[in-house]
Write a structure and sequence with these properties.
The complex is a heterodimer. Chain A is mostly helical. In chain A, 78% of the residues lie in helices and 0% in strands. Chain A is built from 13 helices and no strands. Chain B contains five helices and eight strands. Helices cover 26% and strands 27% of the residues of chain B. Chain B has helices at 44-52, 87-93, 118-131, 148-159, 174-180; strands at residues 7-15, 19-28, 33-37, 56-64, 70-73, 136-140, 166-170, 183-186. Chain B has one domain (7-186): P-loop containing nucleotide triphosphate hydrolases (Rossmann fold, 3-Layer(aba) Sandwich). Chain B is an alpha/beta fold. Classes of the chains: A mainly alpha, B alpha/beta. At the A-B interface, helix 6, helix 7, helix 9, helix 10 and helix 13 of A face helix 1, strand 5, helix 2, helix 3 and helix 4 of B.
Chain lengths: 283, 189
């Protein structure tokens, strides 16, 4: 049974998923830092609806998925303030659109399920090229993008006040988010892609201290969860997407390690910052 | 505009969908700590935001020195619930050197932000602005949530300000403004 893992037919799907696992975990870390993680699910659902619309219109799935995600990003950019309520509407619209459009087609249910659950095993060279390109681009831009996005998060008017254009990093990050959501949805499915965007940084940010180290930890968690899910799904003959999502949820238990470590630090009186700051002044 | 002036506001009326403050006239020169006092809700923060472009200027004029660099310490900064960014990393974002941080906050430099209290987070942000290379630092109610030792650290930094730089300080605590400002303007008076 184990020889199936090394079958050449699975190499491209495996590598596609691995690149996506790393890229989505990395983009997810930025989304969490910006408190926009719910947007990832909204974009994945919109991409799924766009993919279904493509099948309905007879155009490549990638075109519709990108079109719908781009439309959602444009609406997001046009609104003066965007919050979780808007992302929730994107999720509902995407889910509704996928199923309603699917009901008009003979194979709508199958297509809808593949978009929500994923079809990694059918990945081809184009998918691998896209996933690898995304990973290389996000990793390559990390050192440039990171300080800009972090500064915008903590000092929102810093760039504007100093007449530093915000559009280059804003557009680049929007492109990364959109591409991650679309490629993730098409290859591993809307919910598994969201799980990969959401869970690794949720664990990584409390497991390791320091921005770069916590982002690296998130990527490692995402990649390890992916490899385990891939092997398990093939060996036990289970659907890959739900296995990946379930494993990531189980991996979230790693957060308890942090809670235990934090409690130990507090019990040992080793918590430096509370020792060095005096209590509030009476006046 | 004189070369010595970093920022000059003349009759500025600022607000958001409608004017909320002004007309206001003042100028800030290198070495100055200019205080903007006044009761809560008088529009002091809106003036700072008009300088950074976050609020709208309805009338009046604003002149900036051509090489002016700015840093704005926000009132009530939002502390991210879980973010592993260290205090030193937050400091470095503005070009401030964590080695220049006052001894009081050095232990916070190795802590992730989510382990800090609201007051500690605000103190790091405030001191990062003061340690940054920005020529004009806009400070919005920097004394909020600070304990006695933190206030002392902030006072020391204000007194050690490089003469080529300036601070525009908003506070409703008139005694703090009187202790630290070279000039004082009452907003909404």
């Amino acid at each position: 049974m184990i020889e199936i893992l090394f079958d050449p037919i699975f190499r491209v799907p495996f590598l596609t998923g691995l690149c996506l696992a790393a890229a989505l975990s990395l983009v997810g870390a930025f989304l969490r830092m910006r408190n926009e993680w719910l947007a990832a699910l909204g974009l994945s659902q919109m991409a799924a609806a766009g993919g279904m619309a493509s099948a309905f219109l007879g155009v490549p799935v990638l075109v519709g998925a990108f079109g719908a995600a781009a439309l959602a990003m444009l609406v997001k950019a046009a609104l003066p303030r965007v919050g979780n309520s808007h992302y929730a509407l994107m999720i509902l619209l995407g889910w509704s659109g996928t199923l309603v459009l699917g009901s008009y087609m003979d194979h709508g249910q199958v297509i809808g399920e593949s978009l929500l659950r994923g079809q990694l095993y059918f990945s081809h060279g184009g998918h691998l090229g896209g996933a690898l390109g995304l990973l290389v681009a996000v990793v390559g831009a990390f050192r440039w993008l990171s300080p800009r996005l972090l500064t915008a998060r903590f000092f929102p008017d810093y760039h504007g006040a100093n007449r530093i254009p915000v559009w280059p990093y804003t557009i680049l990050f929007a492109l990364f988010t959109m591409t991650a959501a679309v490629l993730g949805t098409i290859s591993i499915g809307a919910f598994p892609a969201f799980a990969m965007l959401f869970v690794p940084s949720w664990i990584g940010f409390v497991l390791v201290d320091g921005w770069v180290r916590s982002v690296a930890a998130s990527v490692v968690i995402g990649a390890v969860a992916y490899v385990l899910a891939y092997v398990l799904a093939i060996l036990i003959d289970l659907p890959f997407g739900p296995v990946l999502t379930g494993l990531l949820v189980l991996a979230a238990s790693l957060r308890f390690l942090t809670a235990i470590r934090r409690r130990n630090v507090e019990l040992s009186g080793d918590d430096l910052h509370f020792q060095h700051l005096s209590p509030p002044r009476a006046d | 505009m004189s070369k010595e002036v970093l920022l000059k506001l003349e009759g500025v009326v600022a607000g958001y969908t409608r004017p909320v403050v002004g007309p206001v006239t003042f100028s800030v020169k290198p070495g100055e700590v200019l205080g903007l006092g006044g009761p809560n809700g008088s529009g002091k923060s809106t003036i700072l935001r008009s300088i950074t472009g976050m609020s709208r200027v309805f009338s009046g004029s604003m002149h900036r020195a051509p090489d002016l660099t700015l840093c704005h310490q926000w009132q009530r900064p939002e502390l991210p619930p879980e973010l592993a960014l260290l205090g030193s990393e937050l400091y470095s974002l503005l070009g401030a050197d964590p080695k220049d941080a006052p001894a009081l906050i050095r232990p916070l430099m190795t802590q992730p932000l989510y382990r800090l209290s609201g007051g500690q987070f605000q103190l790091i942000q405030t001191l990062a602005c003061l340690c940054s290379p920005a020529r004009l630092v806009l400070m919005d109610e920097p004394t909020n949530n600070l304990d006695g030792r933190s206030l002392d650290a902030l006072s020391a930094m204000l007194h050690q300000l490089d003469p080529s730089r300036a601070v525009l300080l908003v506070s409703h605590e008139i005694s703090f403004l009187e202790r630290h400002c070279t000039n004082l303007i009452e907003v909404g008076a």
